[in-house]
Specification:
Oligomer: single chain
Number of domains: 2
Largest sheet: 4 strands, antiparallel
Number of helices: 1
Strand content: 25-35%
Distance between the termini: 180 Å
Structural class: alpha+beta
Amino acid sequence: MTSPLDSYVIQPKRPWRLILWIVLSVIITGLIQWYWFNHDSGEKARLIEHNKHLTEQVAAMKNQLMQQSESQQNQQQVQAMHQATVQQLQNRLEQLQKKVIDLDKELLFYQNITQGNSTSELQIRDLQLRPEAENPEQLRYRLVITQGKNISEPITGEVMIKLQNSEGEGEEAKTIDLNVTEHPLNLRHVQVIEGVFNLSEISVPEQISVSLRQKDKVLISRNFDWQTDTPVGQ
């Protein structure tokens, strides 16, 4: 009688297969790790190099921007200095032009004195009014008195300058003194008297009355219309 166990064959164990699978697993795992390590290292190296390149570009751009900014500031400073110099020259030119005009007026003023009436009598020759450049409420005046006689002693006394307005009409008209200024008279041939009217303290007058007095005696008087150009004597 045959037993069923007679056909069953017991195979011996083969541990080398397990070892092979383990070795293969270790090798594959190592290859995978090596690949990822090299891949990550290369990528990091490329990123580091790219970052370095970008950093250098940013530094170069910053340097270029600073140079352009300094150049622009220098140009602005040069332009500001140029504008300031031009403004100073323009102001100086205006001052010189004004001075030339004033000198021309001075020359014309004294030409009128020397080339005018050559009488030897005592005269109130001219009265000139000129607004002050720095203060428009002030008016500078210049009065010229002459005489042509050969005298041993100067004519002395007082020069009275009055700013006047008139009130009323006809027989009731009267002259009102708005301001009275007194100067000493000390005349041999020519005396020039200068002063300033402060218009902020008085109303605008109609005329200026000039008289030369010696004690209580009026030597000569003359009225001038009020105007700031060349005055017209009355």
